[in-house]
Amino acid sequence: MMTPTTESLIKIHHTDVPLSYYTGLLGMPGVTAYAGFYEICSPKKGETVYISAASGAVGQFVGQFTKLTGCVMLLGVLEARKR
């Protein structure tokens, strides 16, 4: 198990954007969505992208990347079945 220390922290010097961006688009959710969408999936314009869960930050960013790329978006919906 890794224990965080103050030595592992870095100060953000880039203040061209609001610091709150570093908790979203420029932080873990944005980087995860970007890597998954552009680096792993890398769809082309017009292709269909299935997003199984767009309720969280990563899924919402993937949805925006899908729209920006010109892809068709399919959102997965989980429905509880009555038996």
UniProtKB/TrEMBL annotation:
Instruction: State the PANTHER family in the record.
Output: PROSTAGLANDIN REDUCTASE, PROSTAGLANDIN REDUCTASE 1
Keyword annotations of the record: Oxidoreductase
Give the Enzyme Commission number: 1.3.1.74
Its Gene Ontology molecular function terms?
2-alkenal reductase [NAD(P)H] activity
Known InterPro entries for this protein? MDR_fam, NAD(P)-bd_dom_sf
Organism listed in the record? Rosa chinensis (China rose)
Which range is the signal sequence, renumbered to this chain? none
Q: What is this protein called?
A: Putative 2-alkenal reductase (NAD(P)(+))
Q: Which SUPFAM superfamilies match?
A: NAD(P)-binding Rossmann-fold domains
Superkingdom per UniProt: Eukaryota
